[in-house]
Write a structure and sequence with these properties.
This protein is mainly alpha-helical. 73% of the residues lie in helices and 11% in strands. It has a three-stranded antiparallel sheet with strand order 1-3-2. Helix 2 crosses helix 4, helix 3 crosses helix 4 and helix 5 packs across helix 6. The longest helix is centred in the C-terminal third of the chain and has 31 residues. It starts with a helix and ends with a helix. This is MarR family winged helix-turn-helix transcriptional regulator.
Length: 154
């Protein structure tokens, strides 16, 4: 296969996989009153509070999109903004106990899907899939950085 065909095939597979993950995430999140996007933003701040820009970077989406969801989560009492010691104006988002509880309620469905995927793929192939996807993302980041430098040199 030529490079262009490999890129097209990879992109189409990733787009399809993204759609599949969004669909199953919506099905898991809906019964607890969340959407897949709300769950994704809450999940990004479970370990530590982050500014909206940090959440957007981690998720690979726009800051404006995350800001809209963060504001909705805060308005529904699922998350809250707290002061950021490193930056006066960029507040940190953190889940409230209500938000953490909602994510915990998704846990059994999440664990079931993980077990079913592990059964289907096998543990080694499942782990290899993660490594390949992470490496692909790193390569895309490296190319984007290279393109940004090339653009500014023009």
């Amino acid at each position: 296969m030529k490079d262009g065909e490999l890129l097209s095939g990879t992109a189409l597979a990733v787009f399809r996989l993204n759609g599949q993950f969004l669909e199953v995430s919506e099905r898991m999140a809906r019964p607890v009153g969340l959407t897949a996007a709300w769950w994704q933003v809450l999940g990004a701040v479970l370990r530590e509070p982050l500014p909206v820009s940090g959440i957007a970077r981690a998720m690979g989406v726009t800051r404006q999109g995350v800001q809209r969801i963060a504001d909705l989560l805060a308005g529904k009492g699922l998350a809250e903004y707290v002061p950021n010691p490193a930056h006066r104006t960029a507040k940190l988002l953190r889940p409230t106990e209500q938000g953490r509880a909602a994510v915990r309620r998704i846990g059994p469905a999440h664990a079931d899907l993980a077990a079913r995927l592990a059964d289907e793929l096998g543990p080694e192939e499942f782990a290899a899939t993660l490594r390949v996807l992470e490496r692909l993302s790193e390569a895309m980041d490296a190319i984007a950085v290279g393109e940004a430098g090339a653009d500014s040199a023009r």
